[in-house]
Every structure is written in C-alpha cells, then in structure tokens.
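Minutes, structural biology subgroup

Action item carried over from last meeting: produce the structure token record for PIN domain-containing protein (Sulfurisphaera tokodaii). EB confirmed the sequence was re-checked against the source entry. Recorded below for completeness.
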Amino acid sequence: MICTVIPINRSDFTFESSFSSIVRTYELFRPEKYVIIHAKFNSVHLEKLKYLFEKLKEKGKKIEMVSTESISDFNSFKNIIDEKTKECEKVYLVPTSGANIIAVFLALLSKENQRYQLVNYIFSFGPWTHFYYPFVPRDLEVAYTLEGKITNKPSLDLNLDPYLERNEFVRNIQMFALKINKKFDSCREMSLKVNGVDILRTWSVNYHETVKLLNKHVFSNEDVSEALLKLSGAYDILVEGKKLEEVSYGRTVVIDTNLIYFGIHTHEIRDLAIPYCADDEILRSVNKKDNPISYIIFYVYQALLQRSKIIPSKLTICDVAIPKIEPDLIKGALVITNDKNAFERWKELSLRSYAEVEYAELDKSNRRNSFAEVTSVIFNMVSLLKLMHEKIPQSYKNSMLKLDIVEICCNKTWCIDVLKANKSDDQKTT
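Output recorded by EB:
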C-alpha cells in the first residue's frame, strides 16, 4: 500500500500549494491513502479542497485528517504518522504546503525509516503567481526527491472543472494548460503558431520579431501588435532601472491605468492597489471599441481585480485623481505611472510627502526569456487572441485582424488549436 502525508498549514499561497501538492502526488505515485495535516486557521482552504477530496474518494482513495493541535513536538508527530501509516509499504512525505516546523519534522522522519520518502514540488512563481497545478504546464511544477530522480510517468485523470475560474481570460489559460498536461508527460519546447506561422518559441525568444510577425500575419496595425505583447507580459517593468518586483517587495503598489496595459498582472506583486479612477478609465476604453485591445482589456482587468485591492479616488482621470487620494490610504506606498507629465507634476505635490512617486517604463531587451516567463507570454497571448476571436463582431473583425488558427505546440510535434471549443482539436504537425 502506498500512502502520502501532506501538510496544509503554510501562511501564504496555502490553497495553491496544497492543491498542487495533492494533485501532483496523485498523478505521480497514485497513493491509496492521504494523511492531511491541517491547522485550524486553514479551515477555509480545507473547505475549498473538499471537492478534490471527493474526487479522490471516488477513485478509491482514503483521506484522513490530522490536526496540528495534536502535535506538540517531533516525537508526538512521529508517533502519529507512524500510527496513521503503519499499513503502508511506502510513504511519500510532501513538505511543500507545510509550515517550516512541519517541513523540518517531515525531513527528520524521512531519515528514520527507508519507507518514508521526501518529495518536494518547486513552484514557478513570477508570471505564474496565483496559478496552481494542474492549471499550469507540468514542467513549471517540478518534483524533487532526496532519494533520486523520479521516473514515474504522470497520468492525470481527475475531473477538476469546478476549479476553473469564471473569468474567461484566466479560464482559457487554465484550460489550455490542463489539455496539455493530460496529453503530454512533458512539454519543454513550446511554441505559439497563428495562421500557420511560428510567432513565439520558448527555445528562441525574440519579441521584436514576434511584433513583426503579428503585424504581417494577424494585425494591420503595428501598434496593436506591440500592445498585445505588452498586455501578454513580454517585458519587464522598470522603476529607477530596477525590476518592479525588486523595488515593490514588502510594500503597497498603487498603479496608474497604463500599468494595466503593461501586463502588470503577469508580475509578482504581492500587494497591488488599484484606484477607482483606473476602473473608470478602463470602462471608458472598453466602451470605445476602436481597436482589438479595447475588446479584451476588461477581461484582463477583471482578473487583476481578483488579486488586488481597490482604493477610493475621484472618478476622473487618474492624472488628477491619484494625488487627491486620502493620504492615510496610501501612506508609505509606491505610486507608479508611465505618464511622464503626470509623474513630473505628482513629484511636486504633497503626494510626495507621504508616498514614493516613481516613473515606470518597459524594458524591451528580451530579458523576460526564461521558460516560465515565455510560456506565460504564450498562454496569455493565446487567451487574448481567443477572446478577440470570440468578442469582436464579425463586421469589425475583417478590418481589424485575420485570425483563422491559433495553436499551442509541444515538442515540435503536436499542436492544439485553441479556437476549436469542445471539439477533438489535437492535430499532428508535419
């Protein structure tokens, strides 16, 4: 009998890490029993995991809960786990979603008996922050063990549709990742093809070339091609020459509307604040519907709102509204804009006395070229192109863009046409 012990008591990304750990462990090792160690303050996450546990039970798996309140030290922990897994020949210990002390206990336990094997999952945060497995490509959720390389072939056969987001932009990304994970063991070489042309590849990144190809084969306006790359998160956002992630850590970041168009949703900003004025400007842009981006920006903004906080401001343009935000709401915050004129005015106002005001710009030097970053750009762009295909009326579509086939391709051999909804859409490339 194969078993696993998975704690659910870390202080951040608790649901994401626990869900990923449970599903990755299931597909890799097929445990027959899951011992879930949980803290009382994580009960809300257990409630969200209830459907997943029911799916595992339908597969004949046993789920047993252990409260951290019953654990006082390592010996009590060891006794509980030994008792709960006494019938198990092999026990996989997964510290990924556990607090430090439980992770240490699991590591110590793995040294005491050969039937205990420590397995850890390394998550790719950055542009994939707030996504979790199996709704991210498998290669971004790497499994490690101290006992050697894992050779098990993963097999994902759980119905997890209720965990798909309602937001169409995010839902698209989740569904594409889920399809790829069910079809491929690994997809280390991924590419985006539009109308039969390779637009972007993980193994050879050139965003300047991507803009040219989009302009030639999809859009008639190069500004739209560039705007799509920005919104897809292709570029670093720089503040005083440093990445926004570096200067924003541990502080609230208040953004102007232009940062939304810069793809800030693909950056790992833990405490993001959006003023009401940005909400107003986005809605005004949506109502114009004068270019392909105006048809899809709301879906990105809606997804960003789900992990940001809204702060009150006057319902006028943000150039005017942001300096008038109640000081106590943004005291000590980092306030950023890409509007040079607004920045020059703001730094001369009283706003500068209680918040840090900085100018933000894009770095277009292809530095966002890691596997995690490029796959994020690919999935974001594919979702946005699918939304364009669905949301732009046919009467306008012909003059705005040409979009016949949009494909995510894996390992240079197989492609999935994402515009085909609920169809058998896997096709082999030649």
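Discussion: The two ends are 44 Å apart (CA to CA).
Next step: EB to file the record with the rest of the batch.
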